[in-house]
Known about the structure:
Blueprint: H1 4-34, E1 38-45, E2 54-60, H2 62-68, H3 78-81, H4 84-100, E3 104-110, E4 115-124, E5 131-138, H5 140-169, E6 172-179, E7 184-187, H6 189-194, H7 199-204, H8 208-214, H9 220-233, E8 235-244, E9 250-261, E10 267-276, H10 278-359, H11 365-383, E11 398-400, H12 402-417, E12 421-426, E13 434-436, H13 438-454, E14 460-471, H14 473-479, E15 484-493, H15 500-503, H16 523-533, E16 537-543, E17 547-555, E18 581-585, H17 589-602, E19 605-609, H18 612-619, E20 627-631, H19 640-650, E21 656-660, E22 677-681, H20 686-698
Parallel strand pairs: 12-14, 18-19, 18-20, 20-21, 21-22
Antiparallel strand pairs: 1-2, 1-5, 3-4, 4-5, 6-7, 6-10, 8-9, 9-10, 11-13, 14-15, 15-17, 16-17
Helix pairs in contact: 10-11, 10-17, 12-13, 13-16, 17-20, 18-19
The protein binds adenosine-5'-diphosphate (ADP) and magnesium ion (MG).
Amino acid sequence: MTSLLDLRRSVARSRTVETALRFSEERYRSLFKSIDEGFCIIRFIDGPHGPFGDYVHVEANPAFEHQLGIPHATGLTLRDIAPDDEAKGWLELYGNVLRTGQPIRFEREFGPTHRFLEVAAHRVEPSSRCEVAVLFIDITARRRAEAALRDSEALARENVERVQLALAAGAIIGTWFWDPISDRFTVDDGFASTFSLSATVRQEGVTLAHIMEALHPDDRAGLAAAIDEAVARGGAYVHQYRTRRADGRYHWLEAVGRVDLAPDGTPVGFPGVFIDIEERRAVEAERARITEELRRLNETLEQRVAERTTELMRTEEALRQSQKMEAVGQLTGGLAHDFNNLLAGISGSLELMQIRMQQGRLTDVDRYVTAAQGAARRAAALTHRLLAFSRRQTLDPKPTDVNRLVSGMQDLVQRTVGPSIHVEVVGVSGLWPALVDPPQLENALLNLCINARDAMPDGGRITVETANRWMDERAARKQDIPEGQYLSLCVTDTGTGMPPDVIARVFEPFFTTKPIGEGTGLGLSMIYGFAKQSGGQVRIYSEVGDGTTVCIYLPRHYGEVEDEEATAKLETLERFDQGETVLVVDDEPTVRMLVTDILEDLGFLAIEAGDSAAGLKILQSDVRIDLLVTDVGLPGGMNGRQMADAGRVRRPDLKVLFITGYAENAILGNGQLAPGMAVLTKPFPVETMAARIRSMIEGPKAASPSIRRSPNL
Length: 713
Ligand code: ADP
Ligand code: MG
């Protein structure tokens, strides 16, 4: 039986144990909280956490939270605090500890705090608790010191090399020993002259202040900082700066040395050498200068290339534009040629029918009807291809008084644009003549006025103005025409104007902003072609809302303007019966037939050829030929002009009449025809053709009797 005393004792004992336990736990807890080492206990938790499970922090001290940068870690799991891929590594490590009971120890840098930690993990016993105790010891300072030592050792090795090289090059100019504690230098002569130290100073003792005095002012702060750093750290030292020598100039040098520290960290010596690096610096500076220069050159080169490229692109754009115009010109030129041939066939047939009917020779009429119908059919087939007017229609450029032409058009223009638009003509007096095809210019003027009218639906004013212009080299280059004298014909309206993107495209054939059926988009492209072919240019000045000026520039013609050409009108066709023979070369049978019939009516003999090869063969034969009538555009390898020139080798006096629907100025020598040559434009009235042929065969009656026909022949 237990006595009361026993019971009391037992109670007292258990109280003591309890108190002791509480006391012990508090002691450990405060120890746990106050130690510098991070400490935590983690417990394995199973569940939906992948193959390695997870660990919850059941205890974590402040040092742990500080070292790993995780406040309030208790309750968080490993996966809560570590990124996914990193967590896996940890889980695996702790898993091993739990399973095997083998503690682990390793070092690792922790990303968030940039601290190096030594980690030691132990299984908490009994293992059934599934807990791991982890201790973290901060070893950052040790790691940094090791790194610094490595750096210093590397620098020391480099310094050895520096000194060896300098020795080999004879570049060591002095040595020193400095006692940092007493601030006294042991100096040799080289040192003394490097820092211009006087004998007195040497005697009294050289201090860092003397050194600083000789330094370039810009280098002083840098040297002081470098020395402080080296002395604090110990080990290898290298620094570059300038000192003033006896000659008063600053020279670059490199100080290479070493700070020796006592075990307690006190600097006990700082020996070193000075290396002359003047030459090295000069070489380096030169290299830097060259690099800089190259870099700058490279930059400006890029800029120059860029400028040049833009210029090229501009030129290319201009070239493309003019090539496009050229292509369209050729296309429409070809079409116009065909069409004019057919028209010549039709109108010629009609005229001949009239003549035959007057003569009562009705049997021949059928032939002409058939010919005209055939030509008309082909013309109809052509019309759908006739999308553009040709810019090569200028057949007969004549010296032209543009003022007279403009005032002759004023009535027509006014009637065309209507009463709501006031047309004003300002013709400068003394306007130079131009060498142009007058109907084309009239057409161009009318087109410009119609464009102006269309831009002024509510009425306004059109001003037609002429002027003489001198294009100097710069202006000419800007306008893309040769330098020289030009006259201008400008049409200005007070209409809607054009935005730049429209201006950029107006010369494109078929470009129009007008509704279908109202604009063809050919007006300005045709005018452009005409102006270019006449050796001139077209320019547009336009502001949206203000109006538009379109100017045609034409080269000045040096010469007189002829009076209106008096076209000979033949009432009856005189006949010649002397065997005069005319060679007719044309690829269009209708034209050949017409010309042959006209010749017959005049009493001449006609020989026909369908191409240049056949024509030349006849020209080179002995057949009598008084006149060659030929088309300019011919099949058979040569154009009409070339065939005529070839024929003239054998027949120097051969007279030539070119008939053509699209005489290229260039082919006919830009309007400058050799004597005995003339041009006739298709379509032409039969009388004109007859008169031309007759006057050419007869020759100018008074001027050259030698080629006058003798009545007795
Ligand atoms: P179209 O008159 O058949 O449209 P054009 O070649 O004559 O063809 O003109 C092309 C385009 O240029 C016109 O559709 C118009 O947009 C613009 N344009 C020409 N002249 C003028 C002008 N005087 N004012 C405003 N726009 C113009
Ligand atoms: Mg137009």
